[in-house]
Design a protein that fits this description.
two-stranded antiparallel ribbon; mainly alpha; 100 residues; single chain
Amino acid sequence: MGRMNSSRGGNSSGGGGDRDRDRDDRFAGGPAPKATKESGKGIEYCDYKDFETLRRMMTPNGKIYGRKRLGTNARQQRMVARAIKRARFMGLLPFTSATL
């Protein structure tokens, strides 16, 4: 008749804080690879020939990791994506995991 559901609403026994911490821990697998380098003139760039570093910025299936996972800003992420696409075109990186 008027049964109360104890699993909904207002339970302040402390379950919510752990969930937020666990969400942040997903991306803390280790130090992110450094996305960009600096030239002698101080210009920031991402080298497509450094395919070992670029490979660490991709999933095993070949997808490029997001900004949150890599810890890059928007400009650096565009440079990383452009470098990965150039390396794929040159044959240094695979397009998918089927080509490994």
